[in-house]
Amino acid sequence: MATSRIHRRSIPAGARIDRWTAPDGWEHRVFDWRADGAARGSILFQGGRGDIFEKYLESFAHWHAAGWNITSFDWRGQGGSGRLTPAKNCGHIEHYADYVRDLGDFWAGWAPGNPGPRVAMGHSMGGHLVLRGLVEGVIAPDAAVLVAPMLGFKPGIFGPFAERAARLLGGLGNPARPAWKGNEKPYTTETRASLLTHDPDRYADEIWWQTHDPSILTGPPSWRWVIEGFRSMRELAADPRLAQMRVPTLMLVAEHDGLIDGRAALALAPTLSDVHLVRFGKESAHEILREVDAVRDRALGEIDAFLEKRAPQA
Question: Membrane spanning segments where (predicted)?
Answer without folding.
Answer: none
